[in-house]
Design brief:
The protein is an all-alpha fold. Helices cover about 70% and strands about 0% of the residues. The radius of gyration is 18 Å and the shape is flat.
C-alpha cells in the first residue's frame, strides 16, 4: 500500500474516532449542518440543469 493511501486510511480512522467520541447532541448539530448544506446545494442555480429544446 502506498504511503499516500496509508495517510488517507489513518485520517479516516481518526475522523471516525473523533465522531464516535461526540455526544449525541453534538452529533445532532453536525447532522443539522449537513442537512442545511445539502439544501443549499440543492437550491443552487448552478445545480439546476437547463433543458435544451430541439
Amino acid at each position: 500500500m502506498s504511503p499516500w493511501m496509508q495517510k488517507v486510511l489513518e485520517s479516516k480512522r481518526a475522523m471516525r474516532q473523533r465522531l464516535q467520541a461526540l455526544s449525541f447532541s453534538e452529533k445532532l448539530k453536525l447532522l443539522e449542518k449537513l442537512r442545511d448544506r445539502s439544501l443549499a446545494i440543492a437550491e443552487s442555480p448552478l445545480r439546476r440543469r437547463q433543458h435544451v429544446k430541439g
